[in-house]
């Protein structure tokens, strides 16, 4: 009983930690934020997550920062035939009732100059600032790669409202 | 003066034509213009997309690895080499591809004979920032099957051009000299044990796809060339 309670509590906490519920609770939702674990000596990394806009108006992400890095930018890897290069975006628009997925090989937050080495399991706090002035705090987890079964977020429920039987 | 200009234009036109024809030939070879040659054995359908219609002999090249080890065509011979061009300041596509390739090697390990013949080669096209020592540490993160190498521009071009793996250093005005991105190829190239460019794996990739295709490619190859 205790262990069930604890598990639920932990699940809830983890859920909220990675959710970033906005003030009104129905605006922007951040899901599954993670950072690809870097090889040794590498200070440039990428963070990935899904930004959901449950509101009626489109939202514009204008800035991302992290105390763990000197600089954070909104980036996109773009393919031209076989060639790939990265572009920096000034802002990222999230249409109403839609979600934007940052994932390997596409959109990502480029994290430049880590202040200290990071390894798998470490937490990376980030702050997302929207044009409205709203700030959302997010904690990304350093992972070795996209976690199994995390590809399809439609079937994931971070809210902890329901009791899943596994 | 006028004549000179005319001559110059004709000369550059001729040059343009040569480049165009060369490109056409290269592209045809690359995307698989099938030579009317019975000696070319049609590969099984499940691997034909990965293979060049005609394996291409590579000419020697010289790159540098850690501990002053040179790396050239000889180091490719006798192995199946998975070659990727990138740079360590690349946070997204490079570690992603290297991770996938490292996992593919793990899957190939289930076939010990195949695994023994496999190597990965990470060629950094950013020699200003990527020293061979740094590359050694970088590649070991993904698999101990990897060698990290680089060279000066001429040395890099000598390899990359043979594989049509173009790259450019994208400097931005106003940014510090050591802050720049690199545009590079996203394909993994496969060189056979004879040192010939044999196949390629374009993205998007999965470890399962690479490992599965490689086992079949190797079987097809061994049927024709071994014993
Ligand atoms: Cu980037």
3D structure, described in words:
The complex is a heterodimer of chains A (166) and B (227). Chain A has 166 residues and is mostly beta strands. Chain A has one domain: Immunoglobulin-like (Sandwich). Chain A contains 1 helix and 10 strands. Classes of the chains: A mainly beta (166), B alpha+beta (227). At the A-B interface, strand 4, strand 5 and strand 8 of A face helix 4, helix 6 and strand 8 of B. Strand 5 of chain A pairs antiparallel with strand 8 of chain B. Copper (II) ion (CU) binds next to strand 8 of chain A.
SSE order and pairing:
The complex is a heterodimer of chains A (166) and B (227).
Chain A: H1 2-17, E1 28-36, E2 45-53, E3 59-65, E4 69-80, E5 83-89, E6 92-94, E7 98-101, E8 107-114, E9 123-130, E10 135-143
Chain B: H1 2-31, H2 45-48, E1 51-57, E2 62-64, E3 70-72, H3 73-76, E4 80-86, H4 93-108, H5 112-116, E5 118-124, H6 132-140, E6 146-149, H7 153-160, E7 168-170, E8 181-185, E9 188-191, E10 196-201, H8 207-225
Parallel strand pairs in B: 4-5, 5-6
Antiparallel strand pairs in B: 1-10, 2-3, 4-9, 7-8, 9-10
The complex binds copper (II) ion.
